Amino acid sequence: MKNLHNSQKGFVMLTAMVFLLVLTILALTAVRRATQGENIAKNMGEQNVAFQTAETALRYCQKDFELTLAGGSALPLGTVQTVHGIPINLYQGGFPDFLLPDLWRTRSNWITRGFKLPANTVQYVSEQPECIIEEWIKPNKDGYGLGSNAGSANLKSSYVITARAQGVNSNSVVWLQVIWYLGSGS
């Protein structure tokens, strides 16, 4: 009997250590999942703030632009057009492609051709949102070609308004864009 007892020495301790290791791994996994869930919720909140800030910038620029044109006012003439200090970038494209304006794609254009909302327009964000307005001349619903329908009468002006905003930190960035058609919008 004594021999059997001696061969089992340490078995209980080994079993307890294995169970302790399993419990530790389970506890660490539970903590990691809880922390991961909190991070996901935090990121979603920051993204939501960035989206709302971009929406604010988009509506800010669009409102001033619409109010200027709503009373029948024309845009100021010249190569540099502005509405309440917001630059209106003239369309550079044309036949045959009439591509969508893309000044907004280059970060340096935001500094020289964009508009940053005044300080404290939106609070608790890492940077005030900004917008850029670009004219877009495109064929109307009847099209544009080299035949009988060619000419400026078949071209419509519209405007692409792009807003860029950051949330609470600079890692959450949202871009929003709207195409605003003048007249019938076709």
Helical residue percent? 25-40%
Total count of helical runs of at least 4 residues: 3
Determine the structural class based on helices, strands and strand pairing: alpha+beta
Low-pLDDT segments, ≥5 res: 145-152
Q: What does the radius of gyration come to?
A: 30 Å
Distance between the termini: 99 Å
**Rough outline:** elongated
Describe the overall structure.
The chain is α+β, with helices and mostly antiparallel strands. The protein has helices spanning 2-7, 11-70, 107-113; strands at 81-83, 86-89, 115-116, 130-139, 155-166, 173-181. Strands 1, 2, 3, 4, 5 and 6 form a six-stranded mixed β-sheet that branches. The model is unreliable at 145-152 (pLDDT under 50). This is Type 4 fimbrial biogenesis protein PilX N-terminal domain-containing protein. Residues 10-59 form the Type 4 fimbrial biogenesis protein PilX N-terminal domain. Pfam families: PilX, PilX_N. Residues 110-177 form the PilX/PilW C-terminal domain.
Task: Label this structure with key terms.
186 residues; alpha+beta; six-stranded mixed β-sheet; 6 strands; 39% helix; PilX_N_dom
Q: What is this structure, in a nutshell?
A:
Helices cover 39% and strands 22% of the residues. The chain has helices spanning 2-7, 11-70, 107-113, and strands at residues 81-83, 86-89, 115-116, 130-139, 155-166, 173-181.
Provide the fold topology.
Layout: H1 2-7, H2 11-70, E1 81-83, E2 86-89, H3 107-113, E3 115-116, E4 130-139, E5 155-166, E6 173-181
